[in-house]
């Protein structure tokens, strides 16, 4: 009886030990996977994409939280771009046509309402009145963004970081090349479309994009090391002074 009890106790102890080891290895694996996933986030991102984009209504539009509003904004931007680029409208002609359309609607509203109403009194047509601070807020927002961009460029040029300086110069040179291919309005439209498509795609496929980007960066770093080592090996070294 004692021998059976001792064997059964030994077997139970062995099973519990194996379960603890398995559980411990599972937790270590989960922790390692979570650390790897956090490390592989693009540019060290720790917050959600919605929070990075501001977390307000603009972020909801960019991430297509309300598909009707996002589609309406993108459709309006595409329509404006087609009017200017494909139909060759300029801003003055388009503004005059829009004013003519608005005035015609108000004229018909005022006169037709008196004919069809029972008391023969014309109803007041709706009028468009912009808030007093509308243009002031736009100018303030644009000025703040311009000052932030200028501050960043001057910090790069005066910071002494050669790598960051070269990256910014290359990006500006690429912008100058793209400016030769397209006009300014088309570049703005491309950026607008990218802002309404890339964030939502990244939010949906962030793990795949992060892994792909880091693989590309690793390959670029390996190629850079090979080129750097090849160039450095060809540089003649001076004789050591005894």
Instruction: Give the helix proportion (percent range).
Output: over 70%
Broad structural category: mainly alpha
- Overall morphology: elongated
Largest β-sheet summary: none
Based on CA atoms alone, the radius of gyration comes out at 32 Å
Mean pLDDT metric: 76
Number of helices: 9
Strands, count = 0
Q: What portion of residues belong to β-strands?
A: under 5%
**Helix and strand succession?**
HHHHHHHHH
- Distance between termini? 87 Å
Spans of at least 5 consecutive residues with low confidence: 1-6, 18-39
Membrane topology: Multi-pass membrane protein
Pfam family, one: Reticulon
InterPro entries: Reticulon, Reticulon-like
Keywords: Endoplasmic reticulum, Membrane, Transmembrane, Transmembrane helix
Short synopsis of the structure:
The chain is built from nine helices and no strands. It is mainly α.
Write a structural description.
The longest helix has 38 residues, at 2-39. It contains nine helices and no strands. Helix 4 (67-85) runs antiparallel to helix 8. The protein has a domain at 46-89. With 242 residues, it is mostly helical. The model is unreliable at 1-6 and 18-39 (pLDDT under 50). Helices cover 78% and strands 0% of the residues. It is elongated and about 95 Å long.
Keywords:
single chain, 242 residues, mainly alpha, 9 helices, 78% helix, elongated, disordered N terminus
